[in-house]
């Protein structure tokens, strides 16, 4: 397909504060960039796609996903967070080989694209060897998705011969930053995913400082359960380590003071409502974070437990927050959190949180053409009375007909482009089989649970 596209006649939701929605508009894309938007644009030498009766909006941004867990789909449907840590982090993570990681990340990134996610924060913390890191990164590049490849510093439960020390892990991230991810202009950019903080804190500090040296965004699980002593955010604030390059994840137990610190530093929070509600991490922080003025985003987190689409995440985050308000206020007279408020969380605010606000996250001339087409003629969107609200509360991933990433169609009229789906399926099933065989089958997954709980209690006592 060519490099110049006229997307004609859609109802356009720009998700941009300075670019009004168009009830019926055209979008001209050239060399990956939105050149013009408006009603009845005139243009020569372009391929025209008729989008009458469709919705056009920015591609969605998943701010937190462990894409490598794709082969583990739904195995953790009934797991708490301790079950999850015991099964996934202790048992399954070391059982992945680089080829499994590639199959997992490729299938996971394509699943995301298929569901209208054009940008992914891949919190990639399954780095047993440098070859694991390379395989995970290659798969994201192969999928054609825009991503922050957040190199996970977390070590596995056993000593790795390839990356035996904390310093060697930091050095391996530097290797990628100085070679394959030296440019910040590619679709896949470098980031750092911290090890769970505070265990020990000196290590967390070294990780943050190393990421700053590399000049890349940082993302970190934070306050997902109550901990004694100063919180991660308090420690960072005390040492002057907070900043706009930090994307905290969960923060379900963050204090109001912590949230103010994050807001004041320009940092952001990724809420993952489905995992938080399921696993016992407390209530999603959405409403409190917004109230504190924190840039708030959403993520799917793990398809080892829950679904991998952001329509569900938007809906869940919104309705849980409303339920909490009703409970607090005794049947609220007004719903203060509006449905359409969820859209920036998966578009422009998420782009800003990744330092990509000038590039993606909304539709306006000059930005990259990261966009999705929803089939508004589907019965679940008909009649289309309030398009923004309908996207949040009524749309689902099956409505995503076409997906463009930087001017290239990743999905077109219902089908992923240039993808051998059979091969992708076969490889991710093979990865599932290989990983489960190495740990002694699914029945053996929770064997370390009690030992892990004891370890975690020890960690808390530090
Ligand atoms: Zn996570």
UniProtKB/TrEMBL annotation:
Q: Where is the Amidohydrolase-related domain?
A: 56-409
| Source taxon at top rank | Bacteria
By its UniProt entry, which InterPro entries does this protein fall under?
Amidohydro-rel (IPR006680), Metal-dep_hydrolase_composite (IPR011059), Metal_Hydrolase (IPR032466), MTA/SAH_deaminase (IPR050287)
| Pfam assignment, any one | Amidohydro_1
Transmembrane spans = none
Q: What is this protein called?
A: Amidohydrolase-related domain-containing protein
Record GO terms (molecular function): hydrolase activity, acting on carbon-nitrogen (but not peptide) bonds
SUPFAM superfamilies for the chain:
Composite domain of metallo-dependent hydrolases, Metallo-dependent hydrolases
